[in-house]
Amino acid sequence: MKKFTKQQIIASMAIVLLVIVAAVTGIYYNQSVTVQNNVVQIQKPSLVNNELTYSGKDGVTALALLQENATIETSGTGEMAYVTTINGVAANPKNQYWQLFLNDKSASVGAGSLVTKSTDTITWKLSSF
Prior knowledge:
The chain has helices at residues 6-28, 62-69; strands at 32-36, 39-43, 51-55, 72-75, 82-86, 89-90, 96-102, 105-106, 121-128. The N and C termini lie far apart (70 Å). Strands 3-9-7-8 form a four-stranded antiparallel β-sheet, covered by helices on one side. Strands 4-5-6 form a three-stranded antiparallel β-sheet, with no helix packed on it. The chain has a two-stranded antiparallel ribbon with strand order 1-2. The chain has two domains: 6-43, no CATH class; 51-128, Ferric Hydroxamate Uptake Protein, Chain A, domain 1 (Beta Complex). The chain is elongated, with a radius of gyration of 19 Å. It is of the alpha+beta class.
């Protein structure tokens, strides 16, 4: 039976702890976690068919979470922010807008005013009018 040094045991425990923390973080933020060659990669949600979905977080606005999960452009700030671009996909102001959904229902307030809970699902869809 091979004996391990104290340093090897500590290094192994650190790697296991890192993988666990990364997995929990990925689950909490609805992000994909990949481990390859002891390297942890966390991917943020990406646009699929001009739609972006991620989990809410207790006490954090939908706008702040969108800024954490995507590259965005807005007109206005804070409670008056109007999202115009998500991850390089701009809404055509003549006939499109980024629509915010909370738990599969159209949000009744703007992203800067919508305070989320960890049980919420936030979705942005490029919609037409």
